[in-house]
Input
Amino acid sequence: MDEHIVNFLRGRATDLERRRVEHLRSSSPPESEAEFQEISETWTRFEGMGDGSVGPPPSAGAIARAAGRRRSRARWLASLRSPGAVLGLAAAAALVLLVPWESIGRRDAPPTGGLTAIATTSGPSGMVTLGLSDGSFVRITRDTRIEFPPGARTRDVVLDGRGFFAVARDSIPFVVRTEIGTVAVLGTRFEIDVDERALRVVVLEGNVRLSGPGGQAEVSSGQVGYLSGRMPPRVVGSDDVLSLLDWPGGLLIFRETPLAQAAAEIARHFGRTITVGDERLGRLRITAWFGNETLEEVTAAVCLTVGARCVATATGVDILR
Amino acid sequence: MADLDRLRAGDEGALADLVAEVWKPLVLYLRRILEEEDSAEDAAQEALIRFWEHRERWTGGTDRAVVFRIGRNVALDLRRRVRARIRRAAHQANLLAPEPSDPERDAEASELRSLLEEALENLPPRRREVFDLVRFRGLTYREVGEVLGLSTQTVANHLTLAHKDLRRFLKAPSGRSATGNDATEDRRSSDG
Output
């Protein structure tokens, strides 16, 4: 259908377009006029159909401020990637950091002056994984904004969006602050998903304290906590918290995690079987994050770190002393 | 229409003009993709933020077409994520108090589901989208082409077919099964 007919029907035709439509209607074949009438009738019948009420638009200032925050975040992330600003980037570039728990023990020196990100790597769908100055890792989605307030007395993070945290154990609390409430921990792994209305925390390992205007609640491994408005926090158990963590490319991030648990998550991620030889081996702790590595690469790195042997089997991998 | 050069230069006055012009048609267009009122407004706002965030990038075309294109991508992405989160929503549904239903609103919504709406829903998706953008949102063929990645001739073809489908549907006694809702025809008209 020619656009000048549409513009004519909209009442926005130029003189030339109007003349073209009139010419079309008056010229042969005579079916042209009938065709035009049918188009016109159909067009008219849908008058007002696509209309509806919508809420007021956001102000230009609010849009500009939101966009400005994202631009500053992008610049900040870019600055972290510059050679002079990034510490430990070589390790991060390998996408794997592995340190056996037994070899590093607890941290003695608490962080001072607030957290900083010392390494970043990008992942699928615009995800970014940050290595923090206290040894914790954070993985955030593309549109998530995260800040580390300088001079904080606790390990403070301000989050707006979705982040998975693998927090290094320390006597100084690690506190994630959001518009809805806060999540405080000492050392654990958990995911926070927050928007302007509600917050959800899924705890994979350890415990967190969820605080909001309606009160506080402890959320433990295998539980999910919710905060919304001024309602008291709700905490429920889940048979399968891993199924709630639907991150692009999966989520293999460990922070001082027992090998037995890490092996179970790796097995689930790849849909294979991973057997850990004995209980003592299973209690060794590993710290690592993975990106797009294969099962063989992941298990090889794990075995190397804990001083074990990886043996391929028909269904997966055995980790043995 | 706001001036793309002024927008690229960071003129917030031009941004205000653009928001005033596109907000309502954009929300209504995204609502058709998302079938959800609140999400459509969120998606429209997200589109405007992304437009402004990367404003130096946009060259060629009109500001309106760029915003609609971004909005469409945001909405499609959101729709995909919503599907991925169905399991999570089901889990959460057990925890949060259910929203009380509003019988009056439900009845009203039912009444509003008119024959015309049904005719539109029976169009093949791409054809419906072209019709929506031209008929209801006031976009030019070129702008629709920029939003959907089609040539203007293909837009014109889609619109011709949409009109034929709608006419057939509205003339059919029961309304139903009268449109050319077949993939072959849709593919042929998209080739341009």
